[in-house]
Structures are given as structure tokens and as C-alpha cells.
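W.,

You were right to be curious about this one. When I first looked at the sequence I had no strong expectations either way, so I just let the prediction run and decided to look at it fresh. Below is the sequence, 133 residues in total, followed by the output.
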Amino acid sequence: MAASAEQLENQEIGRGDLSDAQWSKLKPLLPPQKPKTGRPAINHRQIINGILWILRTGAPWRDLPTRYGIHSTVSSRFYRWRKAGIWDDILAKLQTIADYEGRIVGRVHFADSTVVRAHQHAAGAKGGKKIKH
């Protein structure tokens, strides 16, 4: 059974869960909590903390602790938001805010396997048996 909003406010924050400061920055960037039709959605903070738990532990969805809600509800919201581009929007907004506040310095550079030289035996060096004459 999912916790009510009042229970969530009184619930102790677990290790790895969003702090109040983090939540206050993230909350305005999320879709409306209450859908236009149908039953009310489970609290976004509870769901996101569940998603963070999965990402942090690498556990399967079915092993999600009950304090985060039913695993199928948490995973469903994760995948629906991914498909709708909500996670990309949130990231872009957070980056814009951090940039505006001067907390992003310089650029981040990535290297992938196309620019990193592997060991010579992995890079297409001539192989096979060498025959001595």
C-alpha cells in the first residue's frame, strides 16, 4: 500500500533518498501530481526515491522495498516518463538552472572506443602462427 502525503512528510529520509533541498529544486520541474482524470497518482517523491534506489543498487524492480510503493507502479512511471521525454526535459532544465547559477564550469568531454587506442593485439595487428624457417 502506498503511503499518503502526510505519512511521506513524517517519514524519515532514507540513505540515498532525495533530501528536502533536492526535492524543492526538482518538484517544480515534474509533471502535475494529480492527473486530469482517473485516480490520483502516487507521490512523485516516493516514486523517484524508488527509482533512485533501483539505479543505486542495480536490483531488479521486484526487489524494490515496499516503502517506495508497488514495484510495478514505480517501474511503470519510470518507463512512461522515459518514453514521453520527461527525464530528458528534467535534465535539460536542471542543467540550465545550474549554468545560470554559475555552477557549470567548462565543458565535459567524453572518449569512446573510437578514439582510445587498445592494446596492439586488440587493434587488428597481424596474428596467427609464426613459422620459423
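Here's what jumped out at me. Helices lie at 5-10, 20-26, 44-57, 71-84, 86-100. And, maybe more interesting for your project: The CA atoms of residues 111 and 117 lie 11 Å apart.

Coffee later to discuss?

I.
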